[in-house]
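Notes to self, Protein CLP1 homolog:
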Amino acid sequence: MSAENPGYQEFKLDVDCELRFEIETKDQKATVELISGHAELFGTELVKGKPYEFTTGAKVAIFTYHGCTVHLRGKTDVSYVARETPMIQYLNCHSALEDMRVKSEDNGSNGPIVMIVGPTDVGKTTLCRILLNYAVRQGRCPLYVDLDPGQGSVSIPGTIGALLVERPATVEEGFSQKAPLVYHFGHKSPGDNDVLYQTVISKLAEVVLDALKANKRAKVSGVVINTCGWVKGAGYRHLLHAAKEFEVGAVFVIDQERLYNELLRDMPNFVKVVFLPKSGGVVERSKAARAETRDLRIREYFYGQKSPLYPHSFDVKFSEMKVFKIGAPSLPDSCMPLGMKAEDNMTKLVAVQPGHNLLHHILAVSFAESAEDEVILTNVAGFVCVENVDMERQVVTILSPQPRPLPNTVLLISELQFVDNH
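result:
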């Protein structure tokens, strides 16, 4: 650090090294600039001479295959150069997937469908981003599927979804969120409604596999699937279910040998199961940090990241809203009507009377127009948040990315809440 310019550091990185830094303290910023050589962030190439800004919560790893010089300005909680990284193994995984794509071009089959699995905080989302970026940089157009409702990298938390990736993720904002296919789940953990979670996974898989048939470039490019960090018991069964529904051909297991061995035992022989180390730069997050990230994802949905968005706020009468929740309290089988199973209740549509119960909740705006449609199997158009409830006037005030009126469709309540401090 120079005396004239506190907060300025120069790093000269050797071949296959990585600069890692984290910003944890509130309202801190740091900028990185590539001065010479070549470097990338999670598979996205850095442009020489362009400053990239990072803010609170950033965990950054800038890697170089050839060597480079970078300048770091601002305050970070930690910054260091790592010589040991799994990037070469990750690159080998990309090469293997690329070989499969070349084969599928020759024989007309689907490109590689790969699922990334592992416990919480081992870098699954980061590996997905690296593999997708490398594919796009080779002219591919893969589909990204996110089955983790806890963090939500395709849409907001409480959902699962898919996205066609046509260009590399931007360094600061990630992949373009244009026209994602999103299904409402309404909870942070699959365990809050296992039956619904499996149902929406099956539906998403069906639509994704149909999309591969319809888009030749996507068909060859294949699918990269991100999963949640719950890998035991029912969580493990969800992984097996997703692998079957998506017709997965390869599973990359990060950092857990037990899970790797279980999958070797339970996966069909044609599925390649590969064990990968996690990066030393991966940081475990506390419950509070995960909750903060969820809030941030929802805030970005309404207000944007670097480029600001301006959401609308308007009143809607109770009488103009059709609000439902999915899943009724489960009854013992003895109380069920003849021939009905208790689990049917978990996917049942239950009407919700608007009132204070909606305050701060996220509502998914379904494409389904009435409760008679197959609501749980219908994707959503977007989300609104209930900012205020006026019982006297029988209206709610909602925050919405679109101006009024609210589309005349079904609204699905999520357990996720967002308090707008704008």
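- The longest strand covers residues 380-390.
- Residues 206 and 245 are 8 Å apart (CA to CA).
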